[in-house]
Design a protein that fits this description.
Number of helices of chain B: 15
Number of helices of chain A: 11
Helix content of chain B: over 70%
Order of helices and strands of chain A: HHHHHHHHHHH
Largest sheet of chain A: none
Distance between the termini of chain B: 56 Å
Largest sheet of chain B: 2 strands, antiparallel
Strand order of the largest sheet of chain B: 1-2
Largest interface: A-B, 111 and 142 residues
Low-confidence stretches of chain B: none
Helix content of chain A: over 70%
Low-confidence stretches of chain A: none
Mean pLDDT of chain A: 92
Number of strands of chain A: 0
Shape of chain A: globular
Order of helices and strands of chain B: HHHHHEEHHHHHHHHHH
Distance between the termini of chain A: 45 Å
Strand content of chain B: under 5%
Oligomer: heterodimer
Radius of gyration of chain A: 22 Å
């Protein structure tokens, strides 16, 4: 029971809006100590796992090329392209990206997206540009709301698309866990049963994006 | 053979440049804090492999201390003016999209090819790391395309990377730290305790109750652990297999597939899934740390309800 105190640290720390790095480190130390590992072993476990996880921030390697293009006006161009397309509203731009992200993830092309590569330089400026054309004096709150939606679409698209692809990590994990319990399941069948939720995700979130358009037009977003 | 070490050296160059440029930038509002934070991370990328586990742990404490006490803050702004960028955007037009879209395109291309290259019978790239190495190679080639095309000053790429890293701040390191926390949870046996608790609390029998316990439990535990992959074995061994599959003779394929997707609903609602929910807040310069989560919660709750209904109606013999 005591080892769960680390989870408590996480909940309280995030609720109080303390610095997440501090919260996560404290949660790790508390969990290790409560689990009887001792301070030095706990810190070593954390240090070892941190070093083994250096592949996680590899996505930042894209920053030099994205920064270079931003310096040359990439975001301004993305905005400009959308502003000249009358039919491209904020909701429709994001709906199109949702469809693209879900469809490509379902084909296993998970790397065709992401916040540093796609959302910051392209999708968010496009969604903002579409709103600016229709509402000339866009206030900051609305602008931030549109950007948050752009980030959300990337997440929802990839989460509820990737499981339709049979070789993705989560499908292999499901197969492995059930196999250990003596139950055999086929990746192809697991992938099929991800389709109903994928359709629901597209319909429900798509509807919310079109409602966002309506609120933007009324100026109540 | 190219392994992850190659990518760690590249990351070290990136964060090292951010540390040095910040240190030499007398106009930076948080010069010392930023250069210390990126500098310590550089040590981890360049020599972390050869340091002891304890030394790497101390490195984490130092980074967290710097981030908490001095912060990691955005610098003084853009390197080009809006007018310059608009002029450049007009000049280059849609060609500007080319290097940006080259990143995903080349990642896919590299992913499909570099795993097959052998030199003297040895694979060029460590087979398990092909996907990550592909991303690294794609960013390098795209950067080369951008440099040849735009002909910026040679210091521009690393200077711009410094600007972006500064604006993301400490959030850049959070996903890696969370991965380490997951390992400590596993070493201390957190999963086992939760699994035993769940199995003892939830009464078997009533199908809708048991199904809800599994789908909602997956979402809640994912929110706490930050990762549906960590929650799945716990909840599936604790609830799904004893109650839903063995007890109520539900279809294991449908139950486990939809169970995982219920976990993904939890991922949309937690700051613990930092790379999806907190990093974009920093990247998009949003004032509210939970802005992306707020937008995602309604969709996540609706999909959790859909998953519960789908599992209840589809997975059990009538």
């Amino acid at each position: 029971m005591l080892v769960l105190s680390g989870l408590l640290v996480v909940v309280v720390g995030f609720a109080l809006r303390l610095n997440p790095l501090l919260v996560v480190t404290c949660a790790g130390l508390v969990t290790g100590l409560a689990g009887g590992l001792g301070f030095v072993t706990t810190l070593s476990t954390l240090g070892h796992a941190f070093t083994e996880s250096r592949y996680v921030p590899i996505v930042w390697l894209v920053l030099p090329v994205i920064g270079l293009l931003e310096r040359a006006g990439l975001r301004e161009r993305a905005r400009d392209v959308v502003m000249r397309m009358q039919a491209a509203t904020t909701g429709r731009v994001l709906l199109a990206y949702l469809a693209l992200r879900q469809a490509t993830a379902a084909l296993g092309l998970v790397s065709l997206g992401g916040h540093p590569q796609m959302v910051r330089p392209l999708i968010a400026p496009m969604a903002e540009g579409a709103a600016e054309r229709d509402v000339p004096n866009l206030d900051d709150a609305t602008r931030h709301q549109i950007r948050a939606h752009a980030a959300a679409v990337d997440n929802i698209g990839v989460f509820f698309g990737e499981d339709i692809f049979i070789a993705i990590g989560s499908i292999l994990l499901i197969k492995g866990v059930l196999e250990q319990a003596g139950i055999r399941v086929l990746p192809t069948e697991l992938a099929v049963w991800a389709i109903p939720t994928a359709i629901a995700a597209f319909v429900l979130h798509g509807a919310r994006l079109l409602l966002l358009d309506r609120r933007l037009r009324r100026g109540t977003a | 053979m190219i392994t992850l070490e190659f990518l760690y050296r590249l990351m070290g160059i990136l964060t090292g440049a951010a540390a040095v440029i910040n240190f030499r930038d007398r106009t930076h509002p948080n010069r010392i804090g930023n250069s210390l934070f990126w500098g310590l991370w550089t040590v981890s990328f360049l020599v972390g492999t050869w340091l002891s586990d304890l030394a790497n742990g101390v490195l984490i404490l130092a980074m967290v201390a710097v981030a908490t006490l001095r912060g990691v803050k955005a610098g003084t702004g853009d390197s080009t003016t809006l007018a310059e960028r608009l002029a450049s955007a007009r000049r280059w037009g849609n060609r500007l999209f080319l290097p940006a879209l080259a990143v995903p395109a080349l990642t896919l291309l590299a992913n499909a090819t570099i795993g097959k290259i052998t030199i003297g019978g040895l694979p060029l790239v460590e087979p398990k790391q092909v996907t990550l190495v592909s991303l690294g190679v794609a960013t390098l080639v795209s950067l080369a395309i951008g440099m040849v095309m735009l002909r910026p000053p040679l210091r521009a790429p690393l200077g711009e990377a410094r600007r972006l890293l500064d604006s993301v701040g400490w959030a850049a390191m959070l996903p890696q730290l969370l991965a380490a926390l997951g390992a400590v949870f596993a070493a201390a046996g957190v999963g086992k305790v939760v699994s035993t608790l769940a199995a003892s609390w939830i009464p078997g029998g009533a199908p809708l109750l048991s199904v809800s316990a599994y789908t909602i439990g997956m979402a809640l535990l994912t929110m706490l652990m930050g990762n549906a992959f960590a929650a799945f074995p716990v909840m599936t061994l604790g609830i799904a297999i004893p109650l839903l599959i063995n007890g109520l003779h539900g279809d294991p394929t449908i139950i486990s597939a939809i169970g995982m997707l219920s976990g993904f609903c939890g991922t949309l609602m937690t700051p613990m899934a930092a790379n999806f929910n907190i990093v974009p807040v920093a990247l998009l310069e949003l004032p509210d740390r939970y802005a992306v989560i707020r937008v995602q919660v309604p969709t996540a709750l609706m999909l959790l309800a859909v998953n519960t209904v789908l599992m209840y109606t589809l997975a059990f013999p009538r």
